[in-house]
Amino acid sequence: MIRSAAFLAASCLAFAQTNPAAAAAHKWRQQHERAIVDEYIALLSIPNIARDKENLQRNAELISKMLEKRGVAAKLVSVPESNPVVFGEIRTPGATRTLVFYAHYDGQPLDAKEWATPPFQPVLRDKSLEKDGRVIPLPAADFDPESRIYARGAGDDKNNVITLIEALSVIRDAGLKMKSNIKLVFEGEEEAGSINFGKILAANKSLFAGDMFFICDGPVHQSRRQLITFGARGITTVDITVYGPRRELHSGHYGNWAPNPAMMLAQLLASMKDDSGRVLVDHFYDGILPLSDTEKHAIADAPEIDKDLMRELWLGSTENAPKKLGELINLPSLNIRGMASSRVGQGASNVVPSTATATIDMRLVKGLDHAVMAQRLVDHIQKRGYFIVDHEPSPDERMGHARVAKVIIEEGGYNAVRTSMDLPISREIIRTVQSARGTTVLMPTSGGSDPRDIVERVLHMPTIAIPTANHDDNQHTFNENLRIQNLWDGIELMAALLTM
Question: Are 484 and 149 in contact (CB under 8 A)?
Answer without folding.
Answer: yes
